[in-house]
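note to self — DONT lose this again. spent like an hour looking for the file last time. sequence + predicted structure for the chain T wanted, 110 res
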Amino acid sequence: MQKILFVILIVFAAFLSNAQKVFTAQSGKHADIKVYITENQMQADLMVYKVTDEKLLKKDGVWFFTDKESEAEKIIFLVNSPSDADLIIFYVSSPTQAGWKNPVKKKLLK
């Protein structure tokens, strides 16, 4: 019984997670969201950690970039100004640093 509850908990946690397979579009009209990459972490809505293996997608803010649009959960378009962005991200060096700084924006990645 405990094993079943544990499995259910893991599946539920994975469902609620916003770890993402992301594709970067060449045009804004093909994108789900417009993203600005900031160098000022205080300006960021989301702290993002990039992984090279999609098996490591385990928590909010962990992104795997795919080369195939059809495999992506979210298609992003990079913009040059924070005022043009739906979401402002800051790249972090550790998965423990990844996560939301502005939880109101979570809906963008659902």
